[in-house]
């Protein structure tokens, strides 16, 4: 009985930090991706004329370029959190089992984000469509289906 209890406590002590690390990694990843979505929402609202903030378009475009950099997105997914932690996530194991394909998607996202940043105040729905296509390709292959 004591050995079983000791083994269970040891497992909790070892798994506890790993679960906490997985939860922190998942939260970081979700926040990094929310930054991309947030900028996309602001850019689309400006381009559709839903808000009168055309002067902020260049800033949002620059922020999109920054948010989609591989320096942010790739490390957000580097810890394989598949099946770990208690934080809810829509990321699926295929991210890590087909890392090369997923990394191609991150590179496409960065390229589209940089094109948005380069367009600056002249950003248009052409850049939005390219960025949306990059997002969609990964969401379709590497996210829980809605």
Task: Tell me what the structure shows.
- The structure is a single chain.
- The chain is an all-alpha fold.
- It has helices spanning 2-48, 57-67, 70-77, 94-97, 99-119, 125-142.
- The chain has a single domain, classed as Cytochrome c/b562 (Four Helix Bundle (Hemerythrin (Met), subunit A), Up-down Bundle), CATH 1.20.120.10.
- 75% of the residues lie in helices and 0% in strands.
- It is elongated and about 45 Å long.
Task: Based on the model shown, name its key terms.
mainly alpha, 6 helices, 146 residues
Show the helix and strand layout:
Elements: H1 2-48, H2 57-67, H3 70-77, H4 94-97, H5 99-119, H6 125-142
- Reported by name, the CATH topology is Four Helix Bundle (Hemerythrin (Met), subunit A)
Can you tell me the CATH architecture? Answer: Up-down Bundle
Fraction of residues in helices? Answer: over 70%
Output the number of helix runs.
6
Provide a quick synopsis of the model.
With 146 residues, the chain is mostly helical. It contains six helices and no strands.
């Amino acid at each position: 009985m004591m050995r079983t209890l000791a083994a269970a406590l040891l497992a909790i002590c070892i798994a506890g930090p790993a679960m906490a690390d997985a939860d922190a990694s998942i939260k970081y990843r979700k926040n990094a991706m929310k930054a991309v979505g947030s900028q996309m929402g602001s850019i689309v609202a400006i381009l559709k004329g839903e808000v009168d903030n055309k002067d902020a378009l260049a800033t949002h475009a620059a922020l999109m370029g920054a948010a989609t950099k591989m320096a942010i997105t790739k490390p957000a997914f580097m810890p394989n959190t598949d099946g770990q932690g208690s934080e809810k996530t829509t990321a699926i194991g295929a991210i890590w089992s087909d890392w090369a394909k997923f990394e191609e998607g991150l590179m496409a996202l960065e390229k589209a984000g940089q094109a948005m940043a380069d367009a600056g105040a002249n950003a248009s729905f052409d850049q939005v469509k390219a960025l949306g296509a990059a997002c969609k390709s990964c969401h379709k292959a590497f996210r829980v289906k809605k």
